[in-house]
User: Which sequence fits this backbone?
């Protein structure tokens, strides 16, 4: 489980008037199919590096003070938080924008894979449908 | 001839039947190595594929060196 209170606290700063947190949760459907659970897998060495790069980019491109992101691996159930991204900033504009940037980039670039298990008994790796 | 470690994840791991293997290859580039392993393991045609050597993304024409760790990266789906 993610320790969300600790994660938010790690972004505390007396100069910051804004804290924006995104939580990605396991939902019960994808592309018209009923999903029962998920499994996440990662190439951890590269995922950590690419994640750190993304946070560094966010700190550089937006006027923010702290940023953090954590992604869980393994088997997750409906409603579980799979990913947590948080940003603190003086003002909310860049906090929202930076948080959006982080989750968008993580989803596009970080070597993490998701296997969905469907209600009909089938399963499949997301985005990996055979051409 | 290069001796490299190849690590497999997700859909490629399921087709390779293992999470990693040591490979002795005549392949000069990452692309050539993939073609060799694709034929051997019967990998499915994926919408896209990236590659990393020694835990850094690289291009498909990157030359292989002894001791490299190569990972073929199926379409990612984090978050």
Assistant:
């Amino acid at each position: 489980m993610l320790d969300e209170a600790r994660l938010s606290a790690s972004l505390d700063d007396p100069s910051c008037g804004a804290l924006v947190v995104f939580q990605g949760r396991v939902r019960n459907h994808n592309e018209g199919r009923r999903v029962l659970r998920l499994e996440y897998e990662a190439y951890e060495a590269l995922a950590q590096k690419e994640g750190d790069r993304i946070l560094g980019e966010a700190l550089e491109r937006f006027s923010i003070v702290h940023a953090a992101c954590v992604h869980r691996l393994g088997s997750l159930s409906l409603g579980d938080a799979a990913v947590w991204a948080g940003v603190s900033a003086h003002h909310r504009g860049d906090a929202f924008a930076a948080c959006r940037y982080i989750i968008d980039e993580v989803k596009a670039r970080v070597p993490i894979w998701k296997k969905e298990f469907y209600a009909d008994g089938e399963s499949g790796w997301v985005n990996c449908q055979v051409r | 001839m290069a001796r490299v470690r190849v690590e497999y994840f997700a859909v490629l791991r399921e087709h390779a039947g293992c999470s990693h293997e040591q490979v002795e290859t005549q392949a000069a580039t990452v692309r050539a190595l993939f073609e060799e392993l694709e034929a051997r393991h019967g990998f499915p045609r994926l919408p896209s594929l990236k590659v990393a050597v020694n835990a850094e993304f690289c291009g498909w024409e990157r030359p292989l060196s002894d001791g490299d760790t190569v990972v073929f990266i199926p379409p990612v789906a984090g978050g």
The domain at 4-119 of chain A is CATH 3.90.1170.40 (Aldehyde Oxidoreductase; domain 3). Helices of chain A lie at 4-9, 44-61, 92-109. Chain A touches chain B through 31 residues (CB under 8 Å). The radius of gyration of chain A is 16 Å.
